[in-house]
Automatic annotation (TrEMBL):
Annotated TM spans: 44-64, 162-184
InterPro entries, per the entry: Sphingomyelin_synth-like (IPR045221), Sphingomyelin_synth-like_dom (IPR025749)
Acetylation recorded as keyword: no
Family stated for the protein in its record: Belongs to the sphingomyelin synthase family.
Protein source organism: Physocladia obscura
A GO cellular component annotation in the UniProt record: plasma membrane
Stated name of the protein: Sphingomyelin synthase-like domain-containing protein
Main location: membrane
């Protein structure tokens, strides 16, 4: 909300209007149906995959009798904390012209409005226009992808491992198209969020497994 307000006041002081940056991928590669999805499609995709990842990660290890079934889930939580901390610094330091200026609004007045707007943003009833670089939506679903991709190794049946990974990968690519298509983010926001979240998640998974292996 602070960065939105800063962006609007700067534009008003300069007598300019907020114009989205050129996005080659949005203009040429995103299919038209993706641009017609409602904003709720992005949040629904994340909610479904996140719930599945949590339930599958805990339940599969609990059924298999693995000690501390929450251990692997805590790895993903640690990555999300680091990613969103880095994202907060990025958004606060530099405001990129919004991909959808309609989401912009001034900082709310009074404690009541601040609390109300904060809750509405957390539940996605309100969108922010200045949280461009980098995409939190992409970061979240990238961490979920890695969590599911690693957790299916606990399944003995190779068919189910491949099927779940294939379905998750298709849903992941669909979600990326929706994030950019409905102008929640530029394609560069999704690309940087993807690189950070995937590399940090995979790096932590490999590091933890190596330590666990060598320590027996």
């Amino acid at each position: 909300m602070w960065s939105d307000d800063k962006l609007l006041r700067q534009a008003a002081a300069n007598g300019t209007r907020l114009v989205p940056l050129n996005d080659f991928f949005y203009d040429t590669l995103i299919p038209a149906p993706f641009k017609a999805f409602p904003d709720a499609a992005a949040d629904a995709t994340i909610a479904v995959t996140l719930v599945f990842a949590i339930v599958f990660s805990v339940a599969s290890r609990w059924v298999a009798g693995v000690p501390d079934p929450l251990r692997h889930l805590r790895r993903s939580l640690a990555v999300l904390v680091a990613v969103y901390f880095a994202r907060a610094i990025s958004i606060s330091s530099t405001q990129v012209p919004p991909s959808n200026p309609a989401f912009c609004r001034y900082f709310p007045i009074g404690a009541g409005e601040i609390i109300e707007d904060s809750l509405n943003e957390l539940t996605s009833n309100l969108k922010s226009c200045s949280d461009m670089m980098f995409s939190g939506h992409t970061s979240m679903i990238s961490v979920v992808l890695v969590r599911i991709w690693c957790d299916v190794n606990i399944l003995n049946a190779r068919f189910w491992r491949y099927l779940i990974r294939f379905c998750m990968l298709c849903l992941y690519l669909f979600a990326l198209g929706v994030f950019v298509g409905i102008r929640l983010h530029y394609s560069m926001d999704a690309w940087i969020g993807l690189l950070l979240a995937l590399s940090w998640s995979i790096g932590l998974e490999v590091s933890c497994d190596m330590v666990q292996h060598f320590e027996g």
